[in-house]
Structure formats: structure tokens, C-alpha cells
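Progress note, sequence design subtask.
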């Protein structure tokens, strides 16, 4: 085989490994639960590999061992039934032990993955076609707020998610932190996890939910507890009123051009519930459920034609003059 072919082959086999790390990976766990899931996976893989190798070895030996030619090859020799009976019995016992052992491993893993902690920080996540509503609900309503597509959590503290759906079935999956859980209309599912390290972890809807299912991503941003506390205090505040004329014009246009029918901005008259809450849109990292980074250019592109960026999504293309567009954009960017 020419050297270059071998080099290409080595390169190809190493490609899949590049997927084993980073912000969305089962094999690079960053949470207590995902750690346990990976461990369970490796135990299953190891046992399955050992069994497979043993079977192939026995098969190979059987094929290679030459058998002396006999007059009547189908006749069983003495003791054959005894011996094969014993082999079958031993293998049957081994199979039972392996299956029971793996069940125990799986059960032990579930105790970590589905453990409930009463002092967990509780959030409500509502799946919509095709974005995520994230509700921080404290005991007092003035400490509660709503955001979208971005879930900030403190590290080292259990987080409990109450999962619901506004329309069809979605599935919440952050591979780096824990396993999947479905969001189902009229049912409240729960998922708990604890992030070990600060970082940004990508999540994705894992249940086909319509046209833009693939563009229904989100980010879990794990912050040090004090940083999380500061973010939470800030997020609790209503949107700041614009002081400059362009910002004021933007705020008025946001209402008069219909945006307020679908979007809520706390502390203003905009109270729509059909689309993501925009109270602090200026401080989010992505827009349109992880489809684009949040920059003035992408925000402008989104508002001028959301159907071009995410065809079929539930925000219609709004007829706006370019000066109106500039004012609305200017206003939204102030909503940090
Ligand atoms: C009919 C309801 C509706 C109207 C009217 C509407 N939107 Fe939306 N908007 C949505 C929905 C639904 C989404 C989420 C789309 C998605 O990601 O799938 C959205 C997303 C957005 C986002 C991105 C938010 C995020 O966090 O990803 C911005 C910004 C936005 N809209 C601004 C506006 C502005 C400005 C107007 C007025 C010109 C407007 N919207 C009018 C429903 C609406
Ligand atoms: Cu979905």
C-alpha cells in the first residue's frame, strides 16, 4: 500500500475523535450526571467488546482446526453430548451473570442521573416551535423573570428543570451535562443536573418537531455562583427606558408596528407572549434559538426578514421602512 494511502487512512480514522471534546459532547462530560452516563457507556462497551472478541476467537479456532476425515462424519463421538451440555450450561450461567451485572451497573447509574435534590434551583423550560422559553420562578413574583434560548446556571449547585411544551413534543438535550428528557404538552417532566465546571454548553432539541427542528438549539451557560447571582439580579430588573430620541422612537415603533403583540419587554407596554421575551435581548449571545450570533448585523437581518433566515418559523416578515428598522434595532440593542 503506498505511503500516502496509509496516511490518508490514518487521518480518516482520527477524524471521528475530533468530535469527542468541546461544548456538545457525551464523551467530554462536564456534569455529575453526564460523567455517570459516560462511565455506564464505557462499562457496557467494554463488556460487549470482550464478549465479541471471545466469540470471534472461538469461531476462528473452530474454522481453522482441521477435523480428521471420518467414514461417517455425522456420527457423534463418545461424550459429545455430555461435553456440549456442559459448555451450554456454563455459557448460559455466564450470560445470566453478565446481563444481571450490566443491569446493576445501569441501575446504579440511574440513581445518580435521576437523583432529586430538594434545594435545587428550579427553572421552568417551555418548548415552542422552534425556540425555548426559560422561566426563573422565585417564591416572590418580583424575583421572577423570563428569558429565551439561554439558560444560565450556577456551577456546583443542582438545577431542576420542569419541562413542558406549548405545542408538539420536543426533547431537551445538553450532552455535556446530562441525558435527554422530552417536553410534552399537558405533562410536567423533570430533569436535574449539576454542572461541575463553568463554561458554555450547547443543547439541541432532540425530537423531530417540525420544519425548523434543526434550528432549535440553546446554550447552557454555567457561571461561578457569585457571577450567577449578579446576572440574576440584573435580569430581574425591568428594561431600561431609552433616553435618546432614536431609542424612544424605536420603543414606540416596537408597539405600533406589531412587535409588541408577540414579544414581552418588562416594564413597558409590550406584553406579547407568542415569541421570546426581549427584556434583555441585548445581553444574549445568540438569536433565533442558536441560529445566529447576536450582533447588530444579524439582529437587523433577522428583523428585516426572519423567514429568510429560518424559513417557516412563527415570526412573520414585518413591513418596515429602513428608518423604522434602524430605530427599532437601536432600541433593542439598548436592552442589555
Ligand atoms: C406573530 C408573532 C410575532 C411578531 C408580530 C413579531 N415576532 Fe419576533 N419572534 C416571534 C417568534 C415566534 C420568534 C422566535 C422565532 C424562532 O426562533 O423560531 C421571534 C423572534 C424574535 C427575535 C429573536 C429573539 C431571540 O431571542 O432569539 C427578535 C429580536 C424579534 N423576534 C424581534 C421582533 C421585532 C422587532 C418585531 C416587530 C418588527 C417582531 N419580532 C414581531 C414572533 C413574532
Ligand atoms: Cu423541538
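Output:
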Amino acid at each position: 500500500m503506498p505511503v500516502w494511502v496509509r496516511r490518508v487512512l490514518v487521518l480518516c480514522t482520527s477524524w471521528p475523535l475530533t468530535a469527542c471534546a468541546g461544548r456538545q459532547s457525551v464523551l467530554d462530560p462536564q456534569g455529575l450526571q453526564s460523567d455517570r452516563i459516560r462511565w455506564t457507556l464505557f462499562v457496557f462497551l467494554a463488556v460487549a467488546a470482550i464478549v465479541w472478541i471471545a466469540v470471534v476467537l472461538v469461531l476462528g479456532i473452530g474454522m481453522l482446526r482441521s477435523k480428521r476425515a471420518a467414514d461417517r462424519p455425522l456420527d457423534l463421538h463418545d461424550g459429545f453430548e455430555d461435553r456440549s451440555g456442559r459448555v451450554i450450561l456454563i455459557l448460559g450461567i455466564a450470560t445470566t451473570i453478565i446481563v444481571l451485572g450490566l443491569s446493576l451497573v445501569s441501575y446504579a447509574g440511574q440513581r445518580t442521573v435521576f437523583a432529586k435534590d430538594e434545594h435545587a434551583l428550579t427553572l421552568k423550560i417551555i418548548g415552542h416551535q422552534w425556540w425555548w422559553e426559560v422561566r426563573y420562578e422565585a417564591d416572590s413574583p418580583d424575583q421572577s423573570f423570563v428569558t429565551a434560548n439561554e439558560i444560565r446556571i450556577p456551577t456546583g449547585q443542582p438545577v431542576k428543570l420542569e419541562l413542558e411544551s406549548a405545542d408538539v413534543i420536543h426533547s431537551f438535550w445538553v450532552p455535556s451535562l446530562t441525558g435527554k428528557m422530552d417536553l410534552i404538552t399537558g405533562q410536567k417532566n423533570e430533569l436535574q443536573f449539576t454542572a461541575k465546571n463553568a463554561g458554555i454548553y450547547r443543547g439541541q432539541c432532540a425530537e423531530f418537531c417540525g420544519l425548523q427542528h434543526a434550528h432549535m438549539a440553546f446554550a447552557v451557560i454555567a457561571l461561578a455562583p457569585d457571577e450567577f447571582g449578579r446576572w440574576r439580579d440584573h435580569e430581574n430588573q425591568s428594561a431600561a427606558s431609552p433616553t435618546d430620541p432614536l431609542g424612544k422612537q424605536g420603543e414606540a415603533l416596537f408597539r405600533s408596528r406589531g412587535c409588541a403583540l408577540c414579544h414581552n419587554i418588562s416594564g413597558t407596554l409590550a406584553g406579547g407572549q407568542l415569541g421570546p421575551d426581549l427584556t434583555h435581548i441585548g445581553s444574549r449571545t445568540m438569536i433565533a434559538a442558536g441560529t445566529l450570533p447576536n450582533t447588530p448585523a444579524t439582529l437587523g437581518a433577522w428583523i428585516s426578514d426572519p423567514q429568510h433566515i429560518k424559513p417557516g418559523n412563527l415570526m412573520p416578515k414585518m413591513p418596515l421602512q429602513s428608518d423604522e428598522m434602524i430605530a427599532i434595532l437601536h432600541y433593542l440593542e439598548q436592552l442589555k
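The mean pLDDT is 91. Work on this subtask will continue into the next period as scheduled.
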